[in-house]
User: Fold TIGR01244 family sulfur transferase from Paraperlucidibaca wandonensis.
Amino acid sequence: MSTWTQLNAEMAVSEQLAAHELSEIYAAGFRSVICNRPDAEGGDAQPSQHDIAQAAQAVGLQFAYLPLVPGQIGLDEARAFAQLISTMPGPVLAYCRTGNRSQTVYQLAQSQSLLPSTDAAPKATISADFDVVIVGGGSGGIGVAASLLKRDSSLSIAIIEPSESHYYQPAWTLVGGGAYDSADTERTTASVIPKGVQWLQAAASRFIPDCNRVALADGREVSYQQLVVCPGLELHWAGIEGLEETLGANGVTSNYRFDLAPYTWELVQELKGGTAIFSQPSMPIKCAGAPQKAMYLSCDHWLKQGRLANIKVEFCNAGAVLFGVATFVPPLMQYVERYGIDLAFNHQLVKVDGPAKTAWFDVTGADGEVTRVEKRFDILHAVPPQRSPDVVRNSPLANAAGWCEVDQHTLQSQRFANVFSLGDACSAPNAKTMAAVRKQIVIVAENLLALRAGKPLSTLYDGYGACPLTVEKGKVVMAEFGFGGKLLPTFPLDPAVPRRSQWFLKATILPMVYWNLMLKGHEWLARPSK
Assistant:
């Protein structure tokens, strides 16, 4: 039976309904149903709105069909939804795939006073007005707030961020390889919020860009003159059946989580022989090189301990190539051969049974046919599929893929001129890395202030991103590139050569740059090229 969320006495929202559930919905007291999910969405076997309509009418429920597309929920949709609510008998149950779009359109209609308020769900109050509101207190949010204040200390800025902890995530790969202390990657959010910035410790629940407001999960709303969207991306652990239940046990780990990276190193040290599988999902993901970095550091340890000959290592990549920039494939292949790694391309991890130490992959053949294969493991380093957060994906700011739609050079929203985005949640086609954020901070800070001053947005992003590929403990291939895979090396060295100096940069210099410069508005080597 589908579950629903009661918004107030007259309104509830639900995930996808099945036809046989309509009689129970009527028995629960509902008198109308609204379908907000387009037919055949995503190509799954969802019931059509026609099937639900017939089942609803058979039990005495009124039915309406108002399909909503993620990222395209605006005032027109809210008015149409409010019109349905006003003409249909209540209580009303609206549904889509997860219920998020139905809730978003209802709350937008309510915030615009298109619906009568109820005692059970009072209209949210505006808690404060700010010059700039930043959604997300990660590297992008903290960094851009500090850079804005360095340029104009008079700005009133708020950061919306629910988490009490702030992490330096690039070092988690090193933690999983036994080369870094996990405690050194964590600090309190309060300690990194720039002085003069107001921290709103809550999650953003809805963007209302037509009214220059952001709704918070605690019922407050804040207004802004400019908005910066940088909440990161969502690690969709549930996208792999059985994975969440076994993470941190049964040899299943992932450096993509703070608490699991030490478990990776524990497993690597303990393994004397057997099979180690390292997975990589379809793009886009955070730091596309991270899945194989974990593999190289593990192999390096096993090689030095004399165990590698007894360990079968397999890299199961949902993609078709080892790395997306061709220049760096040859040096990586040298390490693949050194470590005896089996490469399995077009392998998408879809299911894990931890206690049985078994993983299943959907394998796409040359003819496009998909077959499911079963693999046994002793260690599984799993990387989850990744997507834009719900609050972005189901907002008017999103493109069809769910990312905050921006001009890739100015990072300004293509729909709302006073909105900017950076980091993993924005649609710019760059690698989603910390190095990209470091450059994007300058772009957003300068262009936002240019907009406030009525000047052209002349600071342009070239797509710079960097992936320090830790091919062994003590050596790194520093892959730096921009849009289209164009090489953008910072130093005049052959970027395809593994170097000890780049390891020192990765493991020692860059963490210090992050905590002491980047988060404090000091833009060392972050200026865009002209």
